[in-house]
Specification:
Length: 427
């Protein structure tokens, strides 16, 4: 008995060492997330979503990723609720099966575009009139992917105190490019005029009178108010960082630097509450005000809030570096070692063809049929229309090249580009 026990014991020692070594190496790879949220409601149109249990491969815990999102509705809450309930599934449904982690992350920006457009199209087909902003953040390890329409901003606060904005504000008042796009697609941009002809308030687009140039829903507004998100993907350095996602109730009261500064040193749960408190103190409760704070914390570190920096933004220019294609991995390691956030992807075009690209490897379903790049339905061989057919891109690419769209999504694309009169109901 004794000798057998001894033998087993001898076997156990190296095994235990192996396990602990493996756990250590896994820990080095993945940061810990700590998060908190806070909200003050006035109209009841802000919604948020926190999911930390998503898996790329069902049943494989090492493929876990997290989603944090804010939906700021207008003209009712139906679009915000619908997006909260369906957007994640539509994005995941647009990702090809069986991808490894790196390919999955690379395919994410395009899947986000397809998922946003599909959600918009489906919601509009229900005939309800509300709309919503969406800021949708996917965190997988050190890689943060943000997709957004509207003006619910997401900022990143990193070690050293540099604050960067990971979204673009799709407000007609502030975005010249979007104003030009809306006008070119047949919309009118102007202020509300009151009796006597005086113009008041922010720039809005007509018909509809919305101040935003992108949203989900809003079928009573011209279809040039598109659901195509701005997408940014970054890889944090091993120092980690803090994300602050919030609706305009915060951003109308505080700028990005003030917001980051107001909660430094606090754990995520308290930080979210502090940001909301600070916004209310500055401006009062004028609008729904929602905030999510996510700390991405290096492993083997007790969750240490970011230190108060001595120099603000001196490093901002150094902070973002474009990924070079050839030596991506080597570069990535070097950059993360010196605490630099690496920019993996950024694209904000409102043109669907540009966003779906030329890659047709994923447009074939398992049955060998082509599928619609947006709504993922199977297409009959005669039915699929290339996303590039008849567009300005047909000069440089082939109209028979994928990805393909079903007739419905092709209609939607034309409407978004102002090639079909707005107000035509999407069946
Ligand atoms: Zn389709």
């Amino acid at each position: 008995m004794g000798s057998r026990n001894e033998r087993r014991h001898q076997n156990l020692v190296p095994l235990a060492a192996l396990i602990s070594r493996e756990m250590r190496s896994e820990k080095v790879e993945k940061p810990t997330l700590r998060y908190g949220n806070a909200a003050q409601s006035r109209k009841g149109e802000d919604y948020f979503m926190i999911r930390t249990d998503c898996q790329r491969i069902q049943g494989n815990p090492s493929s876990t990723f997290s989603v944090f999102a804010i939906f700021d509705g207008h003209n009712g809450n139906a679009a915000a609720i619908y997006s909260k309930d369906h957007l994640l599934n539509h994005v995941l449904g647009a990702l090809p099966r069986g991808l490894g982690r790196d390919e999955w992350l690379q395919a994410l920006p395009r899947a986000l575009v397809a998922g946003f457009v599909k959600t918009d199209k489906e919601f509009q087909s229900r005939g309800e009139t509300s709309g919503t902003t969406v800021t949708f953040v996917i965190i997988d390890g050190w890689t943060v992917t943000v997709a957004s329409v509207g003006d619910s901003r997401c900022i990143l606060d990193t070690q050293g105190g540099a604050v960067s904005i990971l979204t673009v504000d799709h407000r007609l008042e502030e975005n010249v490019e979007e104003r030009q796009r809306v006008t070119a697609s047949g919309g009118e941009v102007g202020r509300l005029s009151i009796f006597g002809g005086a113009e008041v308030g922010p720039l809005r687009c007509w018909p509809g009178g919305l101040c935003l140039s992108r949203s989900i829903g809003d079928m009573d507004v011209g279809e040039f108010i598109v659901p195509i998100p701005y997408v940014k993907q970054v890889k944090l350095s091993s120092a980690g960082g803090r994300l602050i996602i919030a609706s305009d109730g915060i951003w109308d009261a505080l700028d990005s630097d003030m917001t980051a500064k107001s909660c430094r040193g606090l754990p995520a749960e308290l930080a979210a509450r502090q940001v909301v408190k600070e916004a209310l103190r500055t401006r009062g409760l004028k609008d729904d005000t929602t905030c999510i704070v996510v700390d991405i914390i290096p492993p083997d570190n007790s969750p240490q809030p970011l230190p108060t920096p001595k120099k603000q933004n001196k490093l901002r220019a150094l902070l973002f570096r474009k990924r070079s294609h050839d030596s991506a991995n080597k570069l990535s390691k070097k950059l993360s070692a010196v605490g630099i956030v690496e920019e993996l992807f950024e694209e904000g075009s409102a043109m669907l063809a540009e966003r779906l690209g030329n890659d047709d490897s994923s447009s074939q379903s398992t049955t060998g049929l082509f599928i619609c790049a947006v709504c993922q339905v199977d297409l009959a061989p005669s039915e699929g229309i290339s996303v590039h057919a008849g567009s300005i891109f047909s000069m440089s690419s082939k109209p028979w090249q994928g990805p393909f769209l079903c007739a419905d999504c092709r209609d939607k694309k034309d409407a978004m580009e102002g090639k079909r009169p707005s107000g035509v109901k999407v069946a």
